[in-house]
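Notebook, p. 212. Picked up where the previous page left off. The plan for this session was modest: take the two constructs that came back from the sequencing core last week, fold each one, and keep the raw output in the notebook itself so nobody has to go hunting through shared drives later. Recording the first one now, exactly as returned: residue sequence, then the structure token string.
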Amino acid sequence: MAGMTVAPRRWAGRLAAAAGLLVTVVALLIAPATSASAHAVLQSSSPAASSIVPSGPSEVVLTFSESVRKVPGKIRVIAPDGSRADRGEPSFSGGVVTIPVDPGGARGTYLVSFRVISADSHPVSGAFTYSVGAASTPPVDSGTDSRANPVVGTAVKVARFLGYAGLVLLVGPALVLAALWPRRLSRRGPTRLAWTGLGLVAVATLADLWLQVPYTAGGGLFDVTGEGFGSVFGSAFGAAHLVRLGLLAASVFLLRPLLARPAGRADAIILAVLGGAALLTWPLAGHPAASPAPAVSVVVDAVHLGSMAVWLGGLLMLAVFLLRQADERELGAILPIWSRWAALAVSALLLAGTVQALIEVATPRALIDTTYGRLLLAKIGLFAIVIAVAAYSRHLVRSRVAAQRPVPVRRAVLVELAVTVVVLAVSATLVQTTPARTAVAGPSAGSESGFFSTRLSSPLLAVEVEVSPAERGNNSVHLYAYDKNNQPLLVAEWKATVALPSAGIEPIEVPLLRLTDSHAYGDISMPTAGEWQLKITARTTDIDQATVTATVPIR
């Protein structure tokens, strides 16, 4: 009777797994194709930025370096009197966006503001002006702030980290219970850990889908709309996350028997296939899918993530369970096998990381000159520490000391775990950072990836400052004002100056253009390297104003 009840369960699990694979294939087939680069840049426009045309055009054409997608309601053309000059919805064709406008508009200066989504699911925004007949005072865009609330940006990184942590908690127990767990020990603790990990991955995936709406469209955590969700679900990002949820649901049917007792070979193979397919959804929703070599980048990133999950998950099982509960005989059998697994995982990590670095960094200079490169160097440094500790642990295992004295090994494993958790946090930040190959190619005013960024606070308001590229020559300055509740704040007047006292350069006024009620933009030339003083004054009412100062390092 027992065999008769187990067989249907196994068949049900295999059918569910097959259904999950079918969902994966279908979703990948219908997902929009991604372009071969990340973070699109506005290359040209018609009319050209800052140009004066004799008569009003019937359309404004934006040409980006890569294919872009629409963010609902975030492309606007503002007439000199502050009214909307665009008519109807813009059309998208690869990297070309066409905005129909009223050709009989008034003379004066028009403001074009845009926010689109690049191939790697990150938003790109910017603005420029053109004039009909003659220039006039630029209008102000009275629409909502075109940038996501800083809380949303932080929440996105937290969700990514929770997803990685959940993957570790799921993979480690599942792998050890399937192949290394002594039969006499209770499986309750590792089983709870695995279900917690699966729950974290599911919650993080749902959070990613929710946060992508305000992240791409701009706004706070709850500024979501049905149209926004439709745009996210219709993208490669949304398809990858929906596939992940389907694969997680399918894997539940195979995980339950595996966690309760050693699984059959067929079930283990199907579960491994499901796991490999799920790993692919992370790179398919990020930078790798939009790299110069997307097929290579996606596979390499999946190998990198899977190897990290195996290594860190196995270390967690050793530290929390095996080194505490297993006896000397059991450890003598388990540790050599785990040592070989760890060496294989580390080798895969190093190989995959090297290939990733060659693709995403491109030049040695980018390691120093970009945020992505510096984060990558920090990750490499931390990883070197982990490798050194792992080598010490492997020495103990090879000398057969570990099974007799597990305490030193356990301490080393705890150190590995602590440092690797920091590595995961750095990885969660890396996936939200502009790849170095894109940053060194030359940022534009329309890019959100400033080389210098800081937040300045005063009793009245907070000002977020972005300066790019923070190098000698022309630089773009973006200023965003927030109130004490971290909400966009109306600024009646902006003033800003830059100075370099060490070189005797007196304050130079930065000409600022108000893009929205809380956002101003300007261009300024800083011809000399050094620590420039950026002084900003924001007036919110006739009597209330605040002045803040930032030190901007110019290379």
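Okay, moving on. Second construct, recorded in the same format:
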Amino acid sequence: MLQSIDLKTKIRLSFALIVMLMLLLKLDINSYLKLALFALAYVAVAYETVIAAFKTLFKRFRMSEQFLMSVATFGAIALGDYAEALAVLIFYEIGELFEEYASGRSHKEITSLIALKPQIVRVIDKDGNELKVKPRKVKVGQTIRVLAGEAVALDGTLKNGSAAVDMSALTGESEPFLYKKGEEIPSGGINMGSVIELTVTKDNSNSSITRLIELIEDAAANKSKPEALISRFAVYYTPLVVTCAIILALVPLFVAGESFSDWIERALVFLVVSCPCALVLSVPLSFFGGLGAISKIGVMVKGSIHIETLSKLTVLALDKTGTITQGKFKPADFIVDDGSSKSELLSCVYALESATTHPIGTAIVNYCKINGVELKKAEAIHEVSGYGIEGIIDGKKVAVGSREFIEKITSRTDLDQSNVIGTEVLAAVDGRFIGGIVLNDEPKAGALEFFGSLKSLGITSCMITGDKESVAANIAKRLGIEKYYAKMLPEDKLKAVKDLKTKSTAVVGFVGDGINDAPVLAASDVGIAMGQFGSASAVEASDVVVMNDDLRKIPQAISLARRTYKLAMQNIVFVIACKLLILVLGAMGIAGIWVAIFGDVGLCVLAVLNAMRALTWVKVKRGGTIS
């Protein structure tokens, strides 16, 4: 900490401290010299505080904590207590320096996670020449080169071989990720192997590391209720304290036999100990430290207000596809109606699903490509949200989608039922049912552990999915999900979350990753988005982002949020209780100015030290995470 203090400040404080000790020891010094030394020492430590106090008073018409300190020193000087006047300012400034150091450490803990964004990118032109340009000038489709040990500046697909990339800054994972040719590498990772080349897939404004920086900036703008309360409290609190101090100083006017000097000293004690620094500094620092700790495990919280909500979570609802499950579907069975063929079914579904990016459609497209299915041209493609897709193929009207969608189009309720439990994609041509594909989707690694952790935290789990009843029931049974809603359209998901919130004590969170999850994420008490593969709208609508899509990070984040909120409450209760005790003792004449200084600076240091514990909860080293 000493290294972070500039030389000028060290000289000022050292000189003032020496003069204060001389005055306390009552050394035999000429009175004029003593007064001159005091004046110099007072100006050295007081000028910034006094100027700030009166600037705030006359420009913003508000009494600050600096105003409290200034008035307290003026009173001590009036009483001839020069040592006490210096002590108030010296220890106040020491407390401020300590807070700056602690706040700087907290800020460093978070910004170190995004310091990996390179300022220069190596772009390979058409002639194979390497050009060094700024990231914002690189366009999608260009080729960039990343040397060993360098950070990946922009998201891109790997052009050659394989690459081991340290993604700990983004995801908190200790083990490097191994990427193969054709796979997308997010920006922010460090190339751990040989030189690699990437084809840029996202420009600088949409890159993973830029999104992370924006999330951190959003976090700084959003305050928790206790933090915002403390800030508002400080505005109205100071005038009240000054008024009470004036009343204390004027007691001898109304009570016979009382000494003005005695009651003015009590008023000074009241002013010093009433300074709200310990609360104003330690509560935001507690939440800021919590934000840093949670970010280290690969989870970004957009502000301390969401830490508070996360800590009080009682119900967590989740989307299924891509959130609970891998979102990597595989055709497991085929339904072919009389008069139709499997090739006709596949060609129709292939043509329409090629126009979508939904995981189910992607799985069917990949299957058709591998099996050499002919890709026919589809025209007038129209997506019916939550149901399916319609289009024209070879002059025929083709529809692909859910059972309800196809039943409505074909006016049939006797469509073939498959015994295989899975997600159905049915098809109809000119209103005639031709068949369907049944796909399976496996739960993500760690999903079972995730739901077990939720239960141990006392949080009720709930799955909300657009899939059919049998699929939802199967996943819920396998993973121990306590409650589920099946066959939910986007508007139904929103209604389900609102219904969960109707319970007065329920604090409901929702986890999702798709575009259709954005309204639900925004409507829930705390929206949690899967950030690695989640849609931009889902990430934007959410309050919390899991950077590597690992469900197991969510219970860890909830635990850290609870510890953070508890830490902030500890500071509030501890500081207020101690200050009230010293205020009562000071008003009774038992506690003097030195006790008041401890009640201000001492409590501030203790509260800040307690808040800084959040910085030690999770330690990150390059290439790994240690919890």
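Notes on construct two before I forget. The CA atoms of residues 122 and 461 lie 47 Å apart.
Flagging for discussion at group meeting.
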